[in-house]
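Complex record, two chains
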Amino acid sequence: GAGVSQTPSNKVTEKGKYVELRCDPISGHTALYWYRQSLGQGPEFLIYFQGTGAADDSGLPNDRFFAVRPEGSVSTLKIQRTERGDSAVYLCASSFSPTGTDEQYFGPGTRLTVT
Amino acid sequence: AQSVSQHNHHVILSEAASLELGCNYSYGGTVNLFWYVQYPGQHLQLLLKYFSGDPLVKGIKGFEAEFIKSKFSFNLRKPSVQWSDTAEYFCAVKSSNTGKLIFGQGTTLQVKP
């Protein structure tokens, strides 16, 4: 079946602009996760949803970052007033459940470049 | 706070050599442990995971890992690597009651034919 998809695959924006990154999870997965991966580093947790609600947003770096999942399926990560330090690959993952033995399936990522 | 440390940043091996990648974590509670792999141009995918039971877990493509609780370690092993194992390998940990994965910084493995 279809895996996790993310759009766009690449996004170049100017410093100060607003961007939205979209994630389509695997059908039936109730949990959805966002991570950020900088060059040469492992993925860094940002936020995860169980259904429509954010279960843990402790990884969001500041209030410029916000994520929603209004219908419990697709999620959008929103970044306001982008800064050059926001440049990274933003990864989305999904699973049936955040606890238990369920695996998180990752999407291909969105490469964000802030100029 | 939870953390994961991978000791080897870049490993170069010849085909048929044995592999061991170190991973240590910091967390006092019940943990779930994972190794993920990212082949060139591909998504992160799960190699193996440990939740409970036998501390020696076997994954895909001949990989295995051993959970040693007293050492807070979860090292990845493969007896004989192939050129196709060239990839980046990430160790990750989460507490059992959350979905938040904490990743190590990754190890780049290069296998020479």
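Note: The mean pLDDT of chain A is 95.
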